[in-house]
Design a protein that fits this description.
The protein is α+β, with helices and mostly antiparallel strands. 16% of the residues lie in helices and 57% in strands. The protein is globular, with a radius of gyration of 19 Å.
Length: 159
């Protein structure tokens, strides 16, 4: 009985270590300086920026995204801080509060964001995927509010 329980414990421990290693191997380091390729990206119902860059600092589970963009309305910048461990994160974007939950789905980072935009509920779900060579991040986004919904495909490249 003791040896059977010991063997079962060893198998369970081995599977736990294997699963932990597999999950750890699937997370991707998104750190770096990134530039949006406006020509390769699609923006759905939303206007394209003239220029957009991001400086990402990623030490899982901490993720910091500092962005700067040029729009027809002028320049904008923001700093967003998240964790990738499914804990709720709150950020302010132009005096609006948004709550996000991030988690890994294999090598894909999933970001679910909710908040109010001009008094109406807003929701976006992003799927961030890094290319195998580490030179491109593709963000597939579905965004919706009370009146419409749209899809975007944003292509970030290392300059």
């Amino acid at each position: 009985m003791y040896s059977r329980l010991f063997r079962l414990s060893c198998v369970a421990l081995g599977l736990t270590c294997f699963w932990t290693a597999a999950v750890a191997a699937t997370t991707t380091d998104l750190s770096g300086k990134w530039k949006l390729n406006v020509e390769k990206s699609t923006f759905g119902l939303l206007p394209a920026p003239l220029n957009w860059t991001a400086n990402i600092t990623h030490r899982d589970p901490a993720l910091k995204v500092e962005t700067t963009e040029e729009t027809p309305d002028g320049p904008r910048s923001q700093v967003l801080e998240y964790t990738t461990d499914s804990k709720k994160c709150t950020n302010k974007v132009r005096d609006r509060e948004f709550r996000s939950v991030l988690h890994w789905d294999g090598p894909v980072l999933v970001i679910e964001t909710e908040g109010l935009y001009e008094g109406d509920p807003f929701r976006a779900v992003d799927h961030w995927t890094m290319s195998l060579d580490g030179k491109t991040i593709t963000i597939e986004r579905h965004a919706s509010n009370a009146y419409s919904e749209t899809n975007q495909s944003l292509i970030l490249e290392k300059p």
